[in-house]
Write a structure and sequence with these properties.
Elements lengths: L1 E3 L6 H14 L3 E3 L13 H15 L4 E6 L14 H4 L1 H8 L6 E5 L6 H13 L2 H11 L16 E4 L2 H4 L2 H12 L5 E2 L5 H11 L5 H15 L5 E6 L6 H9 L6 E5 L5 H13 L1
Parallel strand pairs: 1-2, 1-3, 3-4, 5-6, 5-7, 7-8
Protein name: DUF2229 domain-containing protein
Organism: Thermus tengchongensis
Length: about 280
Amino acid sequence: MRVGVLEGFLSRRYLGFWEAYLKALEVEVVRAQVVPDLRQPYCLPVQGLLAQVEALKAQGVDYLLLPDLQGGVESERGGGACPWLLDLEATLHRYFPGLPPVLKVPAELSDKTLGRAAEVGHLLTQNPMVVGRALDRVRGLLKPLPPLKTPQGSVGVVAQPYLLEDESFRKAVEEALAREGLIPYFPDLPPEKLREEGDRLLPMDLPTDRELVGMVHYLHRLGRVKGLLLVVSYACPPIPGLLRKAARKLSKPHRLVVLGEDWGGAVKELKRELQGA
């Protein structure tokens, strides 16, 4: 039995547990090391996702492990207008005929994860004893990881959660700001705390939207943060529109930039505004 897994799209939050659990079930875990096809008309994170799915399909995996990014919440607002964020499985089926059977799992760990793990284990092994032993071995991995450490900078960085948990994205942001002598400050609160922050600024339905708006509220109220860089993975709605709506409530300098485009001018303008503040 071979199960393909994906890196990115919140994999830092759930994959450590599930990879260990699958191995405890004596299931082969397959990762795809690929280079995204930049000719595809999608944002960079989706290009990377599609490249992995295509490679895993070619490798002949029996199942594909996919995260439920929104925990079953549905909405037509904000990120709900983006099919990749609202229902990853349904959207992939639309673009990949013949997709391997999907094992949808929560993108965040909680006590409820064990119930889904038991269901997946029974499906893959048909052996309750094996499932029970495997669950006992991985229970200790159910604790969510702490937020990544952040440089103690003065420019707060807001972006979709799946971007902020990507080390290569953080490095790109640090390099872009360093060219102007600026240092980033990435949100350093757990997801549930950021969602609480978001509810204070602009109540939203989807967990990822609440978290995104929460970053704006949290970073804006920090005295250390003098300005904000709002990063989106693509220029079309809905996420840029959501951030612009949240940004109208800000009094600190801010700029919105698009991943993959040249941020030089926007960062220079932000620096000038920070120096004039």
